[in-house]
Amino acid sequence: MTITGAGLAFSAWQQRSHENVTHEQNRFDDNQRNEFWQNRESAHALLNANSYAQQHEAVIRYIEMSDHITKFKHIFANSGTHHQEAILTTLCAHVRKLGETEKTTLSELERAHLQEVIIKQILQRINGGPWNRLQVDLSETHFLTEVTISDLNTESIIYLNKSTFDHQVSIKAPSKITVYWEDAEFHGKLTIAGTSSTDEPTKSIIHHDNLPHKIDVAMFQNVAFSKISGSATQTHNMAIVETSNEHGSQHSSRYFTNCYFIRQNDHFDASYTLKLFYLSRSTTQSHSICTAYLPESYSWATIDFQDQSRTHTQSNH
Q: Mutual orientation of helices 52-71 and 108-126 as an angle, nearest 10°?
């Protein structure tokens, strides 16, 4: 065989090898797509079953689908984000459904555990994972389980509008959280323990529409609260309620230790003195402790404690 013939033979072999590889890759991709859609159909059916075990299996399959999209990004290049949003929306809707007794035959304990499983997966995936920057709509949801949020740093916006928490909610060492929760209702203790300090006030920051108005007991420590840009007012409002019933007076208590109340702006403003607030029962004390400096995008804001005892009492008659 001549050198030219050998070269042509090698070129033909190389071309066939490339076509074989391409064919195998296409077949593999098709199989992965089919597996994804089959899992989606089975997960949807299981999620609507009247069985704790089947609903739990459905949640696992939805999470596996999310991981599948992340692993095979080239297959879902143009639709990956859309599919991730659909999975997140489905799971958020199911958390809401689990809080509604009339929409399920499961026991309260089973529903609470399923909520816990889903919430943990959501928090994990918005914390720099595939759901970071996606909206988390848990509004109008009745939470039957304790909620613990640890080390969360997310670009996602969490909606808790008109939601109700039966048990304790703990937020530990957050870096950045954006949440709408002004009209959420907390029947258990709400605790936020951040890592902010006078040297770094925004190390733990919560962007929000306002402080929740309906809280029995709240303890806030080492955290900055910033009003979301575009809010109607840049003042942080905290409702104070004292009511009476057959057992006597009831107080809603809020405790603030080394908390920072700020607002977003377009220029640096360090003219405000940092305040430390402590609130117990219906008394409020505040005093200046130091002057601190904020990043250029923030300036100091104010917090307004509003006595709503009379309004709350009247509404109960």
A: 10
